[in-house]
Specification:
three-stranded antiparallel sheet, single chain, 145 residues, globular, four-stranded antiparallel sheet, 2 domains, binds iron/sulfur cluster, alpha+beta
């Protein structure tokens, strides 16, 4: 997304103007007040030169949009994915957005999700990830994080 979202102006106070390379959309975004420390710690992006400049990972590996409250329109429509799910033929079958928003792109994955969803209640975020990746892998899907 770094190739899509380019910071064209730093207005100070963690406020930036972002240009969308594809849509031409220009948006002013501001780092969420509760994510300032996370935004300022850029270590989690050291090996991700193509990541959106506002993406960060916390110490548990959880992904965060640090400008979530003012994120560009395209992000409101499509969102960042945290887990990307492919079927056995390598076609995209679904995504996990934010922490636990499971979005199946196929009816087959939708049915699997409805079967498995009740088993996930009460899990921590990390346990939830492990369980979801586990049932997807067992069913023949491939998960990209
Ligand atoms: S949702 Fe946030 S982190 Fe993701 S591309 Fe948009 S601005 Fe970047």
């Amino acid at each position: 997304m770094n190739l899509v979202h380019t910071i064209t102006e730093d207005r100070g106070d963690n406020t930036f103007v972002v240009y969308n390379y594809y849509s031409g959309e220009v948006t002013e975004v501001r780092v969420d007040a509760d994510k300032t420390a996370l935004y300022e710690d850029t270590r989690s992006l050291e090996n991700l030169p193509d990541a959106c400049p506002f993406l960060r990972f916390d110490t548990e590996g959880k992904a965060w949009c640090t400008v979530h409250l003012t994120r560009p329109e395209i992000c409101r429509d499509y969102c960042c994915w945290r887990l990307l799910i492919y079927d056995a033929q390598g076609r995209r079958a679904g995504r996990v957005l934010y922490q636990r928003t499971f979005v199946p792109d196929t009816a087959e994955l939708g049915r699997l999700w409805e079967e498995e969803k009740p088993k996930l209640s009460g899990l921590t975020d990390r346990e939830w990830d492990v369980a979801v990746i586990g049932f997807l892998t067992k069913a023949g899907y491939r998960v990209r994080q």
